[in-house]
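Hey team,

Filing this mostly as a record. A colleague (T.K.) asked me to run one chain through the structure pipeline before their review meeting, and I want the input and output archived in the tracker in case anyone asks later how it was produced. No errors, nothing strange. Just documentation.

Input sequence:
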Amino acid sequence: MPSSTEAIRQKLNTSLSDTTRLRLLQAMTTALSAEQPSRALPYGEAAVGLARTLPEKQRAPGLLRSLLNLASCYANLSNGPEALTLLTEAQGLALRLRDVDALARTYTSQGSIYHERRDSVTAWQHYRRALQLAGQPAVSAHTRMRLLGNVGSLFFFRQQYPQAMRYDSLALALARREGDSTAQSTYLSSLATYQMRVGNMGRVNRLLTQALAISQRQHAVRNQANQLIMFAMYYMQTSQPERADAAVREALKVARRSNYLERVLDSYSILAAQAADQERYREAYEWNQRYVDLNDTLNNRQTFQTLASAQVNYETQERARRMRQLTQQNEEQAWRSRLLVLAVAVLAIGLLVTAYFYRNLRRNRAALAANNQALERTSAELRTVAGYKDKLYAIVAHDLRGPVTAFAGVTSLIDSYIAQNDQAGLARLPALVRQAADSLNHLLDNVLNWAVSQTGELDYRPAPLLVSELFAECQALYQTTAAASWQHITLSAPANLRLMADRNMTRTILRNLVGNSLKFMPTGGHVHLEAAPDPDDAQMVLLSCTDTGPGMNAATVASLMSGPALPEATVMPQTTTGLGLGLALCRAFVHRHGGTLVIQSRPGAGTNVTVSLPMAKSIATEVEKIKAQKSPSF
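Output structure:
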């Protein structure tokens, strides 16, 4: 690619392929858009027009870059409506092509346009979307640098000066690392503006001197105009009127040469203020009159652009209205044609009696079809109920085997201990009998709760419940069972943490979680119950049960989480008693509270089951207040 705009222009006058010409037009637009946007505009329009004529595979990438370049030209010419229209089309192309860098550039450009309109809320929405993408490797350093600088300007507009200086310092460091002198000049100027606002005038002079030197080396006349205006303001604040007058007149000359009307307007304003301060009122009046005339011109141009946009919208709506009207007319014509065909068909039948019997026959057929559908639905429901019944019987038979076997084993132990006169063994028998009885009682509770929940008769009565009391009750219930196998149950819950939940359902959930952990955990294992507010939802509380058992593989966890409402009887291997109805009840009761149940487990690493239940309102309100105090406001 040629290195200068003149070389590009000469190259464009030769015979070229469409793709080569498109790249040259894009390069010319990029080179001129910052300093000479009015000259860049024809090249940008030509690039967009040429890109739209390319073959399908080449069209989208070329059109995307051309739209972004042309939007930059219109933005530099203060034509926000046209720039936003182009950026909206570019955004759709970037999403379709999954071009993360182009999408970040689109959001950044949209945010800068709304910032120019002083709509900081909408500008921040677009900048925030761009910041979410900025960390991805596909986003270029130039895009990231421009985004950081624009965000710094937005914070400066909001008078949040520490944040503004932070983002501009990041942009400046990135510009220095990439060797982008023009960007360095821009961000040095921004930092000088912030230092001027906080009164650090010595720092302002050094920053502006560095920025202006870079702009003069780069022949960046628009940056020079901005920096000279800032020098004039600096000299006015440090009581150096002669230097201020020289700086603003130099800025006016540079701004006129580059057709930078906004800085011309600023120069007029400063010259009028200086003349008024020095009691040169006639000169002040003349500068002010020039300011008013130019400001009216700019406002008229913006008004014309707004009216043109409104005219385009009106024409679009009018075309849509006409299209709807034509569509409606076509539908009416088609309806009339169908009526005519129906009339001919009725006349062809010839006899009204035949039509009467035919209509009755159709009614009978419809009634018969409806009856068949009702019978099929009833049969399906009966098959479902029968399936639930068979599964329930299978689970009861499967899970009941464990407690019954335990009782049989106790009777064998009694005979053995009596024959051996083992007094220590006989002393442990009550605990073993109690453990087997608790297991059997727990199974019967689960079966009863499940049967009631399936028939819809289980009453849901939420009330404030103290988590520490629920944990202590569950620990006391299983303490003897755990001690018999040298297992331990520990608790951790804030003293005042409360749930808004049904007591019976919550106790059933905790009993099943702890019971399952003890059931599958080897001798000497450890179960830990813990409660804490949900960091992602201030209205919920997280209750977790962690054990040191054998754990489960990913396939078993997935089947437990995505299985039917009533599980199969052989979820676990045959060496265990199975999870049975316990997990199904937990899932049903947690969902009844509007919460979630999550299982995390690995073979040999134990299992963690976490459920979320609603928090009592008073506690939830305090948590939300604490989070609101910690989160920054924009």
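Quick notes for T.K.: Residues 281-349 form the longest helix (69 residues). The CA atoms of residues 538 and 620 lie 6 Å apart.
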